[in-house]
Design a protein that fits this description.
globular; alpha/beta; 14 strands; binds nicotinamide-adenine-dinucleotide; Rossmann fold
């Protein structure tokens, strides 16, 4: 079938595009390369550099390809920074999605797979299961909630199928190591390789169930199948075993045989302390299996990261720097070696 993958040069999107192309589908991938890289485009994927906020350019690609399935992953997924980048986050997430959906529906798309997020559950009591209400507590999650609801409404009115997946804390090869705003596993690895301390928000006892891409990918790919039992379903996809950020820091440091300094910072505004999901529905509907798990995933990602070597931090400023922003996100924007934990909060 013909598939359009947005965010195809990013971490998860590149694996999804490669996997679908490898299964024999005709895959076009689009990405503006703001977070992803061309090197991430692997296999028989036709790549177009397009910013999904550019309605005309997006429409041209969608109409040329006439996708039967749209896998939408393009995003600014910096959940923690979204309070300080609301314009960019709303533009790339909610507005970008509408910009792809309209021509896709016009071109007769049969199914939309929205890669949403566990963030939509907010700070309810975990484990989060798919029947819980949407209770977003940050700007990124508000966007994901709106995108989910728009999918449901438009699918009803314009009659296409859809599946919403809610991945959580996925990590692995091809994840950006340069972005100091998100993805703690990659940030820890890059800091260790650069000889920098590991910054931990609060007491480090917040818990997440990290999911290695090799475990999540088969389920994330199956979500794109045109199977009637997937239609209209919402499915969590991710790890089964919550660990604390302190445990994760120890595990990553041990993998690099390093003893980095741990620097504890104030809580990050709007960070949910305990966030992990049920997995029964993903097992039943998408055949989710945790075959490799966190430790093996960290080992494999570290092997890849070591080959890549230490990466420079992207220097991207916040739209709304404020005294509530972690101070390592302020200053020169690098969060790098000059942003030590002992510096005063501005
Ligand atoms: N990684 C996770 O743990 C996780 C968890 C939950 C949900 N998700 C969701 O999965 C999707 C992929 O996340 P990821 O971790 O691979 O992030 P990523 O940043 O690696 O990928 C997102 C891609 O979208 C691209 N992009 C951003 N704005 C764009 C625009 N305007 N036009 C075209 N492309 C644009 C970026 O360049 C990037 O390549 C996102 O929708 C994210 O919200 C990820």
């Amino acid at each position: 079938m013909r598939v359009l993958v947005t965010g195809a040069a990013g971490f998860i999107g590149s694996h999804v595009a490669e996997g679908l192309a490898g299964a024999g589908h005709e895959v076009v991938g689009i990405d503006d390369l703001s977070g992803g890289t061309r090197e991430n485009i692997v296999g028989n994927v036709k790549f177009c550099k397009v910013d999904v906020r550019d309605a005309e350019a997006t429409e041209r690609v969608v109409k040329d390809h006439e996708p039967e399935v749209l896998c939408h992953l393009a995003a600014n997924a910096r959940e923690g920074a979204s309070q300080f980048q609301p314009r960019d986050v709303c533009g790339r997430n909610l507005m970008g999605y509408a910009s792809v959906l309209v021509p896709a529906i016009q071109a007769g798309v049969k199914k939309v797979v929205l890669y949403s997020s566990m963030a939509v559950y907010g700070d309810q009591e975990p484990p989060f299961d798919e029947t819980m209400p949407r209770e977003p507590v940050d700007v990124y999650a508000v966007n994901k909630v709106a995108m989910e609801e728009i999918t449901e409404i438009l699918a009803d009115v314009h009659e296409f199928g859809y599946t919403i997946v809610r991945p959580h804390n996925v990590f692995g090869e091809r994840q950006s190591l340069r972005d100091h705003y998100r993805n703690v596993v990659g940030i820890f690895m890059n800091r260790i390789m650069r000889g920098e301390p590991l910054f931990i928000y609060g007491d480090g006892e917040q818990k997440r169930a990290f999911s290695y891409i090799g475990d999540s990918l088969p389920a994330l790919l199956r979500a794109a199948e045109l199977r009637p039992e997937l239609d209209g379903e919402i499915v969590n996809v991710g790890g089964k075993h919550p660990v604390s950020i302190n445990e994760l820091a120890r595990m990553v440091a041990a993998e690099f045989e390093a003893e980095p300094e741990l620097v504890y910072l104030p809580d990050r505004p709007r960070e949910v302390k305990y966030a992990y999901c049920t997995w029964e529905k993903s097992e039943a509907l998408l055949g989710y299996e945790e075959r490799l798990g966190l430790e093996e995933g960290v080992r494999r990602m570290a092997e890849w990261a070591r080959k890549l070597g230490p990466q420079p931090w992207t220097d991207e400023r916040l739209e709304l720097p404020s005294k509530k922003a972690p101070h390592i996100w302020l200053g020169n924007g690098s969060g790098g070696s000059d942003s030590r934990g002992e510096r005063e909060q501005p």
